Amino acid sequence: MAQLRRIADIMHISPKSCASKEDIAGSLVTLAKALRPLGLNDLRQLESEISQEFGGNDQRAQKIKELFGDLESMTGTNPALSHLHEKIKNTRQSEKTLTRQLQAIIRHSMTPSEEFMEKALNMIEELRSSHPKASNAGLLALANLAYDACIDETSKQTSFPARIYGEFCSEQSRFFTVKLMPYLSRRLQYTDTEENLLIVAAMGKTGHPLALQPLISVIESEQQSKLSRSLAVHSLKRLAKRRPTHVRQILLALATNVGESAEVRMAAIAVLPWTQPSVSDFQRLVARSWAGEESSKQVASFLVSTMESLAATEVPELVEDVAVRAKTVLDLFKRIQGGAEYAHNSNSGHFVQYLLSAANGKLVYSPNRCEAIPGSIAMDNRLYGPFWEMKGPSFAAYMQVITKITNRFVQ
What we know:
alpha+beta, Leucine-rich Repeat Variant, disordered C terminus
């Protein structure tokens, strides 16, 4: 109680910075670890004691209660998830707070059993109508957790205590085959455009083989927008890493199709290196880089910048084979003289010998042909170690309709 009160007072006095120069973040992590062994009844009792001691509705009391909810969500345990579910049913919570706490519980889970993930999925479905933003954020966090804990061979051994308790799940688990993937497939068929983008992204984040056919259906659909189709192509990246043979031919067909939209072709080129393409695959792209249409110039510029980045990359997953193959065909590509009016894909990776790690930074820029504002821009930073991978600052912005929104606001 005293620690909660002290931290809440410091945050209330100076919400943007810590003037007392105390390690508030470290204190919060310590408190969260102390809450991790508590069961559901213990959490109920602790919340009851906090409500009795800080029963007022003033700003300080609300801050302490909210801080306890954030600490509880940082534990990432089954009891914490069940307690949050109870609080949603019994009390009113703001969309912002609920979104933050639901994401945190899923993201901080250290023992992601099938029971935990099924409970989270049921909770996400219940929140779909009353708290759509929290439901959407929770679904993306759950898809990421499912991939890290069940699909990716490296992360499920290094990020979770699988060596102590055994693997928590696999791609054949009931949670995938009966719960998550059928649920995403149902929502993909009967949703509007905005929600459709969410489901496409969630399917891609799972990296599960059952996501391949629905994503291909989105890519091939004439009713889908360019944004949805290009996002579906980008969402194939995790599948491309695990099943390169299955995804490679799909991406090559899209990248070499002159009749395809430039956005979809560039998305295919961006994902293609992760399928370990051969020299002959790169040579197929060489011929298309000499097409004379304006859209093909955009694709050619994006393709050349991608190949230049590949030839110089030091990313461990690409440097051994793909980088060498890219160097052999780099001089054959058509060069585009231009600046910001053409698309670019810059992927910079460097290996730090004394740290035995590699730092990789990626910047993707796609302009709009008829608008000053770019169509999309994305940045991703990662640090690779011998047995681990750390994600840095990253974002992706798709600004296909920003000009229309701006014009409507001005009018």
